[in-house]
Design a protein that fits this description.
The complex is a heterodimer of chains A (about 230) and B (about 110). Chain A is mainly α. Chain A is built from twelve helices and no strands. With about 110 residues, chain B is mainly α. In chain B, α3 (about 70-85) runs antiparallel to α4. The chains are: A mainly alpha (about 230), B mainly alpha (about 110). Chains A and B meet through α2, α3, α4, α5 and α6 of A and α1, α2, α3 and α4 of B.
């Protein structure tokens, strides 16, 4: 059943720092697409259908580098593969047996690092039957805001200096970083975070395309098994 | 690059991205929040995200790569110091870090 109250609460949650952090980077991405020779409709479609910034940057750069469609597909698939474990993780949390499967698959489009972190931060305070609509409000607003900010960035790129644009791109990873360190509570999470970052740096030159995935899976597995006995139930 | 190629690239990028999400929903159909695999996946997710952040800061793609490594690392440390020094204030940490980043890249 659709609960407009939980949906609105999700939207309210997204308004503010989450929307600002992601929106600023999307604005800069729109400006980047303008300078790269995309048209405004292509910029709009990129965020509308993809909504995963690192993969969008990789797509644009692969095109600019003269890559083929297969190059684009594989590069984006690899870059956005982080969304797979995140989706496996968030889906049981927002699951509601009354929600049709097709809606669950549709809502999956709103799963991104920002919506994942913010849903995890509050899910224990929300009734199980309200979580799905709350997430749709939260993720849906972030998605719509990202589409608008991409178009705005495309249109207004000329009035923002290049240095400010680079600064706007920097806001999002800093926001991710702060949200990540806010999870430094359990030993298994601390271990996974630190090991993931360290392995990513060490493996970058060895496996440029795979380093993030290998680092994340290895770090998470080490963190989980080393501290398996620590309070398992989240 | 032709306009048609860009549209096709957006299409294949969207398919590649949505595949990761849709396969995630499919894989999660029998996973409950109190199962060991759920906790393992949570560790993997946070490990992947920290790996992504480390890569963005040290080996960025896109226009962030035009900034110096020194500025990115310095402002990352600024964000962490502000966050832990000022009662874990997210807005303050992110704002001061981003403003410092712009200033450092403007003046150095």
């Amino acid at each position: 059943m659709f609960s407009s109250i939980s949906f609105k609460n999700g939207v309210k949650h997204a308004i503010g720092v989450p929307a600002l952090g992601l929106g600023s980077s999307m604005f800069a991405f729109g400006a980047f697409l303008n300078s790269a020779g995309f048209d405004i409709f292509q910029s709009f479609l990129s965020t509308f259908f993809t909504f995963a910034l690192p993969g969008q940057f990789v797509m644009a750069e692969t095109i600019l580098a003269g890559g083929t469609l297969l190059n684009v597909f594989l590069a984006v698939l690899l870059t956005n593969s982080r969304l797979y474990p995140m989706t496996v993780n968030i889906t049981p949390i927002i699951r509601n047996i009354e929600i049709p499967k097709w809606k669950q698959y549709l809502a999956a489009h709103f799963i991104a690092v920002t919506s994942w972190f913010n849903m995890f931060a509050v899910h224990r305070e929300i009734n199980q039957e309200d979580k799905f609509n709350y997430f749709v409000g939260l993720g849906g607003f972030l998605w719509a805001n990202s589409v608008l900010c991409t178009v705005a960035g495309y249109l207004f790129s000329n009035i923002v200096s290049h240095e400010i644009l680079i600064g706007m791109v920097f806001i999002n990873p800093m926001y991710f970083l702060i949200m990540t360190v806010s999870n430094l509570k359990e030993k298994k999470m601390i271990c996974s975070i630190l090991t993931g970052a360290a392995l990513s740096i060490l493996l970058n030159n060895l496996f440029p395309g795979w380093s993030v995935l290998i680092a994340g899976v290895t770090a998470g597995t080490i963190g989980y098994f080393l501290f398996k006995k620590e309070g398992l139930n989240e | 690059m032709s306009s048609q190629f860009i549209y096709l690239s957006i299409l294949v990028a969207s398919i590649g991205t949505y595949f990761c999400r849709a396969f995630g929903v499919f894989s999660a159909r029998n996973i409950s929040t109190d199962s060991p695999i759920f906790n393992w996946i949570k560790c993997v997710s946070i490990g992947v995200i920290s790996a992504v952040i480390a890569r963005i800061i040290l080996f960025p793609a896109g226009i962030l790569g035009e900034a110096t490594s020194m500025s990115r690392i310095t402002c990352t440390l600024i964000a962490l110091v502000i966050y832990f020094s000022f009662k874990k204030n997210v807005i303050l940490a992110v704002s001061v870090s981003a403003i410092s980043f712009v200033l450092i890249n403007h003046f150095i």
